[in-house]
Design goal:
By secondary structure, this protein is α/β, with parallel strands linked by helices. About 50% of the residues lie in helices and about 15% in strands. The longest helix is centred in the last third of the chain and has 28 residues. The structure holds adenosine-5'-diphosphate and magnesium ion. The site of magnesium ion (MG) has 5 residues, from helix 1.
Length: about 300
């Protein structure tokens, strides 16, 4: 399989709490290590990626974390203004448009303007170029909103295409949609957990991505799995030792759930499943994210 390094935009998605920000941080780190200028974007959340990487929180400005790695936390208010300035170019024009009472009144009727602006900013960075015309970023990692919200977030360009009349907004929505659905540019990574409900939700998310957003999932990351450590025979041998036997049985049951989750995801989503084992540590920080990045090396692909 060609790795993520072939694409510029890595959309990391999944339900809240499954490890999306952890995986986003790990993938961003792997990309930076591969020598690529990498920007990791969080959208309207409690920002966590920079903290996972052992850096202070970043704000709405693109901030450098370490070699080849930058981060930004996008919030609707600032994004609205910045995005308008990026597309309208001039402060005066921004004021004329966004601070005009009549226009503001009409803007309320544009569906999901907030999502449009946040996603627009992310995609603007994907298209951003340097003075020499080269892309400003080799990798943009998007820690996308949680499931459900993720679909409405990623669907905004298509919704606009279907609802707004031809004009600049329509053109912008088309450019955004075209970029998102381009399999040569965009990769979608679905994060899941080895439990029945999260797996069901991942299967639904994959279907919604394909059907409603027209984005093909690239891979699933099955996070916090338990490795198979015991054979049934060994468990019977442990049976006379009460405490030990219980712990071993519990571990074994977890390992079987991980195996089943993997099989369901492989057949249900039809893309490679990359496992990240459950890590046991008091604190979850840089060292743990480095370990996660190690487990995702095959997903990222060739290393520089
Ligand atoms: N592989 C793992 N092993 C153990 N704990 C994990 C693992 N991945 C994530 N976590 C823990 O789960 C919590 C939620 O992860 P996070 O990435 O913030 O989830 P999300 O962004 O999906 O809400 C984190 O605090 C982290 O400590
Ligand atoms: Mg998160």
């Amino acid at each position: 399989m060609a790795g993520l390094l072939d694409r510029r935009l890595w959309v990391v998605t999944g339900k809240g709490g499954v490890g999306k920000s952890t995986v986003s941080a790990a993938l961003a780190l792997a990309s930076a290590r591969a020598g690529r200028r990498t920007l990791v974007c969080e959208v309207n959340t409690q920002e966590r990626v920079s903290r996972f990487l052992g850096h202070p929180p970043v704000g709405p400005e693109v901030s450098r974390l370490e070699e080849n790695l930058w981060a930004v936390d996008m919030r609707p208010q600032e994004a609205m203004r910045e995005y308008a300035l990026m597309t309208l170019r001039f402060e005066a024009l921004y004021k004329a448009v966004f601070e005009n009472r009549v226009i503001r009144y009409f803007l309320r009727f544009i569906p999901s303007l907030q999502e449009l602006v946040l996603l627009g900013k992310v995609l603007w960075h994907v298209r951003e170029t340097r003075a020499d015309g080269q892309p400003a970023w080799d990798t943009v990692v998007l820690d996308a909103p949680a499931t459900g919200h993720a679909i409405s977030f990623l669907r905004v360009p298509q919704v606009l295409l279907d609802t707004v009349p031809p004009g600049p907004l329509h053109k912008e929505a088309r450019a955004m949609r075209d970029l998102l659905v381009d399999p040569g540019l965009t990769a979608a990574v679905l994060v899941s957990l080895p439990e029945e409900l999260p797996v069901n939700e991942t299967l639904e998310l994959a279907e919604a991505l394909r059907g409603q957003v027209r984005v093909q999932p690239t891979a699933v990351v099955l996070n916090a799995t338990s490795p198979l450590r015991f054979e049934e025979g060994e468990l019977r041998t442990l049976a006379p030792v009460p405490g030990l036997s219980d712990a071993a049985r519990e571990q074994h049951a977890g390992a079987l759930r991980s195996r089943e989750a993997r099989a369901r995801l492989e057949s249900g989503v039809g893309v490679p499943v990359h496992e990240v084992p459950r890590l046991f540590s008091e604190r979850f920080g840089r060292a743990q994210v480095e370990a996660v990045a190690g487990h995702l090396a095959a997903l990222v692909g060739r290393w520089a």
